[in-house]
Amino acid sequence: MLADDVTIRLERPVDVAAVRSLLVACFGGDDEADLVDELRESIDFRGDLAFVAVAGDSVVGHVLLSTLRVGSRRAVALAPLAVAPLWQGRGIGSALVEEALGRAIDEGEGLVVVLGPPAFYARFGAVAAASLGLTGGYDSAGEEWQAIKLPAYDDELRGEVVYPPAFSD
Predict the structure, then answer these.
(1) pTM here?
(2) pLDDT per residue over 56-66, tens digit each?
């Protein structure tokens, strides 16, 4: 359950610097922060699918869903998800994912692809991406490369996953 002093909301332009600092702190380098910065400047950025967790005036969590392709169809990638170390274990990561998935459902998305720990993402319905007929992307990561079927999912959402260029830069 999310703490009463934390709120989840859409990311705003004023949050960009705080999100960057959060990502650098959580991942120990610039790679994820650079990814998010590059995605924000691309056509794959979905401002309607970028969320922050805020405690007081501080950004303590962030999640982003961006557009990718599965064959000739559109889907979304969940990456990255970050919660400030001192705020972990309080349900913030789960609340961010739930908010992002809820909005993706509202927007008619059918599939979310994610790279991460199966024990965490299974609670949101994630299964091994390969089990849904997905290839490419991060398939060498095995069970950590996962996909979440949303209500608009159909069996045509299979084939090669092509991430935005920002993921390979």
Answers:
(1) 0.95
(2) 999 999 999 99
